[in-house]
Amino acid sequence: MSASLHRISGYDRAAYRAVARLSTPALDEPIRRVSDFANFSKLWFVVAGALAVFGGPRGRRAAVTGLTAIGATSLVVNQPIKKLTGERLRPDRRGLGVPVQRWVRMPASGSFPSGHSASAAAFAVAVGGVLPGLRPALRVTASVIAFSRVYTGVHYPSDVLVGVTIGALFGRLTGRLALRRWPPSEPNEKEHTS
Questions:
Q1: Cβ-count burial of 25 within 10 angstroms (0-12 exposed, 13-18 middle, 19+ buried)?
Q2: pLDDT of residue 17
């Protein structure tokens, strides 16, 4: 077991270093800003607000569903999972070669799993289940946020992959519960999917 974990850790560090070595200075500022804007799920609150204001009844339901998914995911990721996994230390950005111009503030919490990635996946999957027309744009946005956490040096790739998996599971569950509560075929209801 110990040998397997050591091997996985080696792959994790190798992938982290590969991202750190990417020569993409034009992306540094935009990705850093996206990563910062995702702090405390600000981006998702803005999207939920737009859906609530402009999306009609289904938009409001999608907003509530997405925010519920974030709440449930954040509670599970930031409490029991991070505590059970022993508060994995954050990567050593300087030692592993992440360019300083990419850096965002290093969170004080443990690294595993990524809460940003979990929340992004939860919101994208939950809202995409209620409003399928938004699914591609939400998933691309969630993917950029997840990638940004490795690109800026605050998470290892496995932190992000596990975070995305947990978030997607909670998003799927929340989306299914919402569709059960509010079936999409209610009469006299316009569908807002763009």
A1: exposed
A2: 92
Residues 104-137 pLDDT 10s: 998 888 888 899 999 999 999 999 998 999 999 9
d(CA 68, CA 167): 12
To the question of domain 29-181 being in CATH 3.40.190.10, the answer is no
Q: Which amino acid is at 62?
A: A
Residue 109 CA to residue 89 CA, distance in Å, equals 8
Task: Please say whether the dihedral angle defined by the alpha carbons of residues 100, 86, 34 and 121, taken in this order, is positive or negative.
Answer: positive
The number of beta carbons lying within 10 Å of the beta carbon of residue 13 is 16
Task: Report pTM.
Answer: 0.86
d(CA 103, CA 117): 17
pLDDT digits (tens, 9 = 90+) for 21-30: 998 999 999 9
- Cα gap 7→13, rounded to integer Å: 10
Domain boundaries, the chain: 29-181
- Say if residue 113 is preceded by a cis peptide, omega within 30 of 0: yes
Exposed e or buried b per residue across 147-168, where buried means at least 16 C-beta atoms within 10 angstroms of its C-beta: bbbbbbbbbbbbbbbbbbebbb
